[in-house]
Amino acid sequence: MTGIDHDTAVEDLRDHLAAQLTRARRRSTALTGAVDDHDLVRQHSELMSPLVWDLAHIGNQEELWLVRDVGGREPVRQDIDELYDAFKHARAARPELPLLGPAEARGYVGEVRDKVLDVLAASPLEGRRLLDRGFAFGMIVQHEQQHDETMLATHQLRVGPPVLDAPPPPRGGPVGPAEVLVPAGPFTMGTSTEAWALDNERPAHRASTGAFHIDTTPVTNAAYAEFIADGGYRDPRWWSEAGWAHVRAASLVAPRFWAREGDRWFRTAFGVTAPVVPDQPVVHVCYHEAEAYAKWAGKRLPTEVEWEKAARFDPATGRSRRYPWGDEEPTGLHANLGQRHLSPAPVGAYPAGASPLGVHQLIGDVWEWTSSDFRGYVGFEVFPYAEYSQVFFGPDYKVLRGGSFGTDEAVARSTFRNWDYPIRRQIFAGFRCARDAEPGESA
Ligand SMILES: [Fe+2]
Hints:
alpha+beta; paralog of FGE (formylglycine-generating enzyme); 13% strand; binds fe (ii) ion; iron; DinB-like
């Protein structure tokens, strides 16, 4: 590369990073601007922070990494670091903290952002691993977008008239056979080349599976309703010991936000109650419910390795794609992402997003529970800090894949790993099933 080409490439990267930061902020502003100050400071659920905490926390992380670390600038508000450290205060305790009020929080994140754009304009975007291809800025964009999904979940838990609006998702369509056979063998899992991939997605490595079948689509509301109607929630045969204990203790009878009226199920989403849409993926089920349904259906949940293979492996070339449809960035034709719609789309709504083997809607719509615990890949290295993922490794958390309608495309790579407790239902999570191939069935 010549000096001029290099300068142009750095300038293009700066423009890209600035645009991504602005896009994330537009969403944070919309989510926090949709409600009044009272709703911003109050806690809508013990599971969530007040929205005003998320907002100032977004600014605080941005200040720590981009203003102070990357920029080497003076702190903006060192005095509030402790309040917005997610490890210092449980979500349930956050409303009692002396938090910045709505106007103060907005002023703070704006001041930080101004300094960050200044830092970006001056940064060489090289010379340190943290700066390589704009990683630190990308990490902060993803952090804000992930909190935007969390804030969307807070909106879903908020009780009151609707304040968010979006067009309905596209219509469903044909998806072919109910299951797809994935051949046995190795494939490349994880990544060492995605610029913004987080430490837990790295490094790229060979992983292997036996031959297995995976559902062509996520499990739909109609299918899930059959499990309920068949007494699934009352039959210990389908549940693990921990799942059965939980379903009894929490008195679960249906997905969260479902209610029965007469012989029909209704679902409340963002303040609107409507009949459950049969061909949309089920959402707001916990790991235990997903696991019980799969057993009832004579199947099981896919492992994380199986999920990623179904999403990325191209049998024609033997290589792993960035996305099920190929290497190009998602558009509205590929997947239901980015809060473009406020619900999962019916199955078959994204034929252009299918994988080479014909698996639909792996990216977007609903996070998909896998049977895998959250652990580091072989060769895992903490970067840039242990609290990002390493402290969560172990048997307490299950991995979710693929992103939801609330996840931004800056996050929803097919290598991206999310994790949560197996009892959590406020996240936009559903699932699909898998099963071992019969001997001799391997493609
Ligand atoms: Fe955070």
